[in-house]
Amino acid sequence: MRRVASAAVVEIKELRDDLVGKSGAQVSMAFVLAVRSFTRWPVDAFVTHIDTSKEVQTIYWIQGNAIGRLTATGSGDTPTLSGAVHSLSSLASVDLGGTLVDERLGPPEVRRAATLRFGDGDEIAVDSAACTNQHCRDRTDEFINGVLDAIALDAIVFAGDDGDDDADD
C-alpha cells in the first residue's frame, strides 16, 4: 500500500514539474490535482497561465480531437474549478497574431498568439509575448502548433471524404 501512495506522490510531483518546468512559477497542489483529475495526462500539448495577483491558474490542453480549458480560482486547498472541453470539429475559427521581439541575443524572434473561437461562442486565447519565461513561451508555441496540426489533419480527412457513404457505387 505504501508503494502505491509513494508512486502517486511521484506522479503528482512530475505533473507539477511538467506544468511549470524550471520557470520558477508556482502552482497550487489543488490545481495540480485538478489537472490530474480532468485530463488524461500526459496530453499532446498544453500551456498554463498563472496569475498569482488574481489567484487564477489556467491550463489549456490538446488531447487527440479535444481542446480543453481548466481554471482554478482562489487560494488554498479549495479553489473554484471551471472549464470546458471542445471537439476540434466545433472550432469555428482561429485568429493568428504575433510580435517580433529582438533581444539582441541572436536573430529576432516571432512570439506567436492565437485566439480559438468555438461554435458556442467560447474562446481560448494564448499569447507567447505575454509569457515571462521560456517554459511558457515554448509551451505556448507547442499548443499553437498542436492546434494548427489538428486543423490541417481535420482538413485532410475532410478533403478525403467525398460525402458518399455508399462504397458500392
Question: Explain this structure to me?
Answer:
It is a single chain. Helix 1 packs across helix 2. The chain has a single domain, classed as PH-domain like, CATH 2.30.29. The chain is about 35% helix and about 35% strand. The radius of gyration is 19 Å and the shape is globular. It has about 170 residues and is an alpha+beta fold. Strand 3 and strand 4 form a beta hairpin. The chain has a four-stranded antiparallel beta sheet with strand order 1-2-3-4. The mean pLDDT is about 85. It is built from three helices and seven strands. The termini are far apart.
What Rg, in angstroms, do the CA atoms define?
A: 19 Å
The first-level CATH class is given as Mainly Beta
Strand arrangement in the largest pleated sheet = 1-2-3-4
Q: What are the secondary-structure elements, in order, as H or E?
A: HHEEEEEEEH
- What is the helix content? 25-40%
- The SS-based structural class is alpha+beta
Domains, number: 1
Shape: globular
Q: What fraction of residues sit in β-strands?
A: 25-35%
What oligomeric state do these chains adopt? single chain
For the terminal residues, how far apart are their CA atoms?
60 Å
Q: Using the coordinates shown, work out and report the CATH topology.
A: PH-domain like
| Alpha plus pi helix count | 3
Please report the total strand number as a whole number. Answer: 7
- CATH architecture descriptor: Roll
- Which ranges are low-confidence, i.e. pLDDT below 50, for 5 or more consecutive residues? none
Largest sheet: 4 strands, antiparallel
Give the overall average pLDDT.
86
